[in-house]
Automatic annotation (TrEMBL):
A biological-process GO annotation: proteolysis
Entry protein name: M28 family peptidase
Pfam families: Peptidase_M28
InterPro entries: M28_fam, Peptidase_M28
Matches recorded under SUPFAM superfamilies: Zn-dependent exopeptidases
PROSITE patterns per record: PROKAR_LIPOPROTEIN
Single GO MF descriptor: metalloexopeptidase activity
Domain Peptidase M28: 98-297
């Protein structure tokens, strides 16, 4: 997550009552499918390895992360959206890439609309001033979210059950000021990209102790939270006061899509300022990630995303203010 300079004070957070949920929420088309914790761990461990040196955009070691994510697309038969998977940033002074692919929808009409699923794969690299471990491996921030997107890719490439098309984006230079998502959102806007909604995964590596699994940024800006809970048939996402206090809606890669397209564009997250103390620190390591929690959350999100891509109308909409 883009650095929050006023992060340190400790608050006691409350939550708003969750929206009502339909008891008879429909099951996923492929309800028996389960993301595999071993695969989740394997992806996460590679992205957080010292070999990648903290995934600093423009660094030589970042090339290994790019190649890895390209390979995820290739192995799963996902096409590049542009000429290649590499979307070169136009707003960064080093060579850095978003890694972008898409799966076309299977409905003759709805396939012209896109759901964007994304996460930033960069982090803050090496801190030469640090004592001891100098590599900021960025396990929670945001190898965890990146890993989630790889699992969403595997699911839809396997079943191809999305009526709408899905654009997958691994963003670079988020830590430099959302540069990757700003570049891509602007580029797509200039091409008259037909977007329905954008969902971003950020910092999902540790669970919260609340009556919902994750919170959503910009909770009150759309009905995304209530629709997700309806699709899931449970209190999956809720409101966290801290996201409003720290203005997290504007702190991750959902925001440029909101500003460019004025459509529901939000982030799901399970870092709540109380459950993890190693934000932007070298201790943010693979060994501290709860991969069972990550896998469970991914499995809960898969049918939600499936229903979002398949709704006959644009059920998720901005709220009038």
């Amino acid at each position: 997550m883009k650095k929050i300079f006023y992060l340190l004070p400790v608050f006691i957070f409350g939550c708003k009552p969750n929206q009502s949920i339909k008891a008879d929420a429909p099951q996923a088309i492929n309800e028996l499918y389960q993301a595999n914790e071993q695969e989740v761990s394997k992806t996460l461990e590679f992205l957080t390895s010292d070999e990648l040196e903290g995934r600093d955009p423009g660094s030589e070691s970042m090339e290994k992360a790019v190649a890895f994510l390209e390979d995820v697309y290739k192995k799963n038969g996902v096409k590049p959206y542009f000429v290649s998977y590499r979307d070169t940033l136009s707003n960064f002074d080093k060579m850095a890439y978003n890694v972008v692919g898409f799966i076309e929808g299977n409905d003759p009409e709805l396939k012209n609309e896109f759901v964007v699923i994304g996460a930033h794969y960069d982090h803050i690299g090496i801190d030469q001033k640090a004592l001891g471990d100098k590599i900021n491996n960025g396990a929670n921030d945001n190898a965890s979210g990146t890993t989630a997107v790889t699992e969403v890719i595997k699911y839809f490439s396997k079943f191809k059950n999305n009526k709408r098309s899905i654009l997958f984006a691994f963003f670079s230079a988020e830590e430099k000021g959302l540069l990757g998502s700003k570049h891509l959102a602007k580029k797509l806007k200039e091409k008259n990209f037909n977007i329905y909604t954008m969902l971003n995964f950020e910092m999902i590596g540790v669970p919260m102790k609340r009556n919902y699994t994750a919170y959503i940024t910009g909770y009150g800006k759309s009905n995304m939270a209530s629709k997700f809970n309806e699709y899931a048939g449970k209190n999956l996402v809720g409101f966290l006061q801290a996201e409003l206090t720290y203005r997290l809606f504007m702190a991750s890669d959902n925001y440029p899509f909101f500003t460019e397209f004025n459509v529901p564009s939000q982030t799901v997250c399970t870092f709540d300022f109380e459950n993890y103390e190693y934000y932007h620190k070298p201790q943010d390591e693979f060994k501290l990630m709860d991969t069972a929690h990550m896998t469970s959350f991914i499995n809960e999100m898969l049918p939600v995303i499936e229903k979002m891509t398949n709704s006959e109308t644009k059920e998720i909409a901005l709220k009038n203010k």
